[in-house]
Amino acid sequence: MTEHIAIHDTPDGVRLIRLDRPDKKNALTCAMYDAMRDALAQADLSESIGAIVFAGAPGAFSAGNDLADFVAGARRPFTEAPALHFIRRLARTATPMVAAVDGIAVGIGTTLTLHCDLVYASPAARFRMPFVELGLVPEAASSYLLPRRVGLLKATELLLLSQPLDADEARRLGLVNDVVASDLLEDHAMAQAARLAGLPRGAVAATRKLIRGDQADVEAALEAEAVAFEERLRAPEAQEAFARFLGKTKAP
Questions:
Q1: How confident is the model at residue 1 (pLDDT cuts 50, 70, 90)?
Q2: Domains and CATH numbers, the chain
Q3: Contact (CB, 8 A) for 135 and 237
Q4: Which long-range contacts (CB under 8 A, 24 or more apart) does 228-235 make?
Q5: Are 111 and 189 in contact (CB under 8 A)?
Q6: Integer Cα distance of 17 and 136 in angstroms
Q7: Is 228 in a helix, a strand, or coil?
Q8: How far, in Å, CA of 210 to CA of 138, rounded?
């Protein structure tokens, strides 16, 4: 476990996974990915946990990967990356998941929500997936899930042009269930998660399977993305983009 991921289990069967690194807008490190993966796996094994809520420290959901940490870890094969292990676990999690998005949700901060059963956002929420800008490709099966959710043309705009979305547009596109005031957001998400946790577990599991369709297709997309991500990660385009972002070279 890491100090930057806080886990809290409520009496009504909800596990809250809070990204708690406010000074870095909840940018994710390898240790944070490992902690979240373990929290998801444990929830699936627990008879007392019926739903999971992802939330960030107030004012930000997640700025995406901590690039300095990510680049340091990229010396290893991507197949060993904590980010990929977390994404695989996220896609396979059987416990219903809810996201409470306040502030920025960049990269995995957005793609994570595509695996959630319910997503609520504050008016301050801003979604963005700048993978191509960094010389990379989408992850978390977003190249498969996003077109199914918003249509091919809009998904292309969001993924290729890194088009940002505010909360109202995300709701209009069907990426968010509702927009809730920031001071009420987490309580609302927790209440909806408690409703899920209180329902018959077998019926919830069977309904989730029917809604989500073929799990094999999701995992096949996830693994195809991982292969392409590994290839792009080693390419000069990504190395130059990382260097610019980290201030090691001047942007052109």
A1: low
A2: 5-181 (3.90.226.10)
A3: yes
A4: 228/137, 229/78, 229/136, 229/137, 229/139, 230/77, 230/78, 230/79, 232/135, 232/136, 232/137, 233/74, 233/78, 233/136, 235/135
A5: no
A6: 27
A7: helix
A8: 25
Residues 60 and 20: beta-carbon distance below 8 Å: no
The Cα 30–Cα 34 span in angstroms is 6
Q: Is residue 53 within 8 Å of 112, Cβ to Cβ? A: no
Q: How far is CA 131 from CA 73, 161, 198, in A?
A: 18, 9, 38
Q: Where are the alpha helices (DSSP H) in the chain?
A: 30-45, 67-73, 82-92, 108-111, 142-150, 152-160, 167-173, 182-197, 201-212, 215-233, 236-245
Would you say the C-alpha torsion 227, 154, 164, 141 has a positive or negative sign?
negative
Q: What is the pLDDT of residues 140-198, one digit of tens each?
A: 999 999 999 999 999 999 999 999 999 999 999 999 999 999 999 999 999 999 999 99
CA 78 to chain centre: 18
